[in-house]
Amino acid sequence: MHDISKAIYGASSSASNFVNTKNSVLRMNIPANKSDGRKTTNCYFRLLLLLVFTGAFQTSFSQSSSKPVYVIVHGAWGGSWAFKKVDSLLTEKGAVVYRPSLTGQGERVHLATTEVGLSTHINDVVNTILFEDLHDVILIGHSYGGMVITGVADSLPGRISKLIYLDAFVPENGESVMSIQGSRAEGLKIMVVNGFLIPPWVPAGKLPPSDVPHPFKTFTDPLILKNSRRLKIPTTYILTVEKGKNPVADDFATQAERAKKKRWTVLQLEADHNPQWSAPVSLVEILKKLGG
Q1: Based on the domain organization, do 33 and 152 belong to the same domain?
Q2: Do residue 36 and residue 107 come from a single domain?
Q3: What pLDDT does residue 66 have?
Q4: Backbone CA torsion sign across 28, 33, 34, 36
């Protein structure tokens, strides 16, 4: 509020100087009657108010646009709803947060088809950044979201200031989730029904919000990377490890190793694979430091 007051004061001073200048120029043309004089005064007064509030608005807009901007991409079967708590905590700390739901996921489950592929999800996030006109984005990908943000960084490297892989896949050119998984991919195949990966942990008839079937095509599509500029983006990998468990045995330990070989910063967070629920406060503290 104090900064806004200063902005209003500054705008008022500028407006006052402008009006004084205009008055000095028009001093030789003073209206012959009081009625015309009042009209002229009212005109200048309205101009003053316009300049005051324009200055205040511009200062306010500048302040809001200087806040760190986070775009969080959820994992498979999920939706933006999964990061609602993280969004709230980051917003309280002065950040601006976007949580796009990928096509066929979350509240966009009605758009699910077997034709939804990896490029569909990449374009979901690319278009969020473009149509919201976001710059200096801190782009976060959780789990399967690592595939998506890698593609987004390849498409819009100039819009992204930092990349954060949250217990996520770290793909190379031409890889898919299934190829990265190797022998463990067989466990995914048995989950496929009519072109969708069905989450067995969700009870039948469970009401939203909940995980939903995920288009299998997004797991088989290879990621095509063409833009080497993405490699210059500062990147951090966060490996989540449950309390008392060996990090080397974690499901995403191999992805953390990939990150180390790329000389990324690698951090470890005590949490299960879904820190947005099991350790939201600790997660936000890390995200805030990385975005600062």
Answers
A1: no
A2: no
A3: 87
A4: negative
Question: Between these two residues, 132 and 32, which has the higher pLDDT value?
Answer: 132
Cβ atoms of residues 93 and 120 within 8 Å = no
Domain carrying residue 256: 68-291
* Boundary-marking domain end, from 63, 81, 113: 63
What pTM does this model have? 0.79
Question: Which residues are CB-contacts of 256 (< 8 A; sequence separation ≥ 6)?
Answer: 237, 239, 247, 250, 266
71 SS3 class = strand
Residues 40 and 84 in one domain: no
In the DSSP assignment, the letter for residue 99 is -
Separation of alpha carbons 134 and 159, rounded Å:
7
Residue found under tokens 């790329």:
262
Closest residue by Cα to residue 80 from 63, 96, 103: 103
Write out the catalytic residue numbers: 143
Q: Are 133 and 125 within 8 A, CB to CB? A: no
CATH code of the domain in which 246 resides: 3.40.50.1820
Instruction: Give CB contacts under 8 A, 24+ apart, made by 172-175.
Output: 172/225, 173/223, 173/224, 173/225, 174/222, 174/223, 174/224, 175/222, 175/223
Task: Count the domains in the chain.
Answer: 2
- Taking Cα atoms as reference points, which of 59, 57, 53 lies closest to residue 12? 53
pLDDT, position 48: 45
What SS3 class is residue 45? helix
What angle do helix axes 145-155 and 118-131 make, rounded to 10 degrees? 60
